């Protein structure tokens, strides 16, 4: 779908406005619908959520979806200002999906019905329905023998060479 320059500017203005206005169940979803995002009923969009501003029409959110704080959804990937004619990837988020805070969802991804995406996840491939998706839990990686900052100065090389594997 091609839009006029003024239409693209309006989509971007509405997208920026939707990031900060109140109303996770009301005003924010309504603004994104105006932009062309397809969504079902009872969708919660938290603040500071970025939904692709060049191709909002390529994003579909099902019923009862929750999008957490500071999430990003990229519905396309190409260089330049104009989409090639064969751009069809988009993002589909099925119904009853919960996307935790600070997640990034890349183009071409479908998140299946009832899935939960763990906070901080980067979703690069499809998520099956009813699955808890996310990286392994954080764990200690190494013992620090020299602090990264010492006397107000960053001692990066000393820090790196002082790391001891656990």
Describe this structure in words.
By secondary structure, this protein is α/β, with parallel strands linked by helices. It contains three helices and 17 strands. It has helices at residues 5-20, 27-35, 156-162; strands spanning 38-39, 44-45, 50-51, 59-61, 66-67, 72-73, 91-93, 98-99, 104-105, 110-111, 116-117, 122-123, 132-133, 142-144, 149-150, 153-154, 163-165. The strands form five sheets. Strands 2-5-8-11-13 form a five-stranded parallel β-sheet, with no helix packed on it. A hairpin with a 2-residue loop joins β15 and β16. The protein is globular. The model has no long low-confidence stretch (mean pLDDT 90).
Which stretches are poorly predicted, pLDDT < 50 over at least 5 residues? none
User: What is the approximate shape?
Assistant: globular
Instruction: Please identify the structural class as seen in this structure.
Output: alpha/beta
SS field, number of helical segments: 3
The largest β sheet comes out as: 5 strands, parallel
Rg, nearest Å: 20 Å
Largest sheet, spatial ordering of strands: 2-5-8-11-13
The termini sit apart by 53 Å
Question: Any descriptors?
Answer:
four-stranded parallel β-sheet; five-stranded parallel β-sheet
Give a short overview:
The chain has 166 residues and is α/β, with parallel strands linked by helices. It has helices at 5-20, 27-35, 156-162; strands at 38-39, 44-45, 50-51, 59-61, 66-67, 72-73, 91-93, 98-99, 104-105, 110-111, 116-117, 122-123, 132-133, 142-144, 149-150, 153-154, 163-165. It is globular.
């Amino acid at each position: 779908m091609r839009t006029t320059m003024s239409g693209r500017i309006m989509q971007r203005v509405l997208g920026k406005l939707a990031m900060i206005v109140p109303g996770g169940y009301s005003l924010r979803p309504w603004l994104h619908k105006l932009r062309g995002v397809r969504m079902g009923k009872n969708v919660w969009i938290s603040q500071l959520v970025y939904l692709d501003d060049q191709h909002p029409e390529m994003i579909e959110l099902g019923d009862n979806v929750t999008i957490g704080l500071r999430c990003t959804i990229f519905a396309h990937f190409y260089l330049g200002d104009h989409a090639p004619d064969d751009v069809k990837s988009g993002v589909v988020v099925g119904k009853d999906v919960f996307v935790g805070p600070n997640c990034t969802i890349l183009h071409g991804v479908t998140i299946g019905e009832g899935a939960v995406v763990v906070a901080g996840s980067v979703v690069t491939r499809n998520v099956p329905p009813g699955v808890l998706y996310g990286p392994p839990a954080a764990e200690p990686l190494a013992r620090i023998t020299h602090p990264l900052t010492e006397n107000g100065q960053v001692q990066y090389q000393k820090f790196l060479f002082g790391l001891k594997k656990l």
